[in-house]
Amino acid sequence: MTLEALEAETRDPFFDHWAPMFVVYAANAVALALLVLFWPAFALLDRLPAAKPRPFPGQVEST
To answer: Does Transmembrane count among this protein's keywords (predicted)?
Structure first.
């Protein structure tokens, strides 16, 4: 049996799982990038003053 024929019959276990794991790694990279990009925006939300509710039209504002 030649080496080429043996390689054709032998399965490489690496190729059984690399594609799904690549998808997982890519999703983790995207999630991490979004977290890093938007973390300052979420941190600044805590520093905003509390919003006062607006009165309805025609409602007298009480103090």
So the answer is: yes
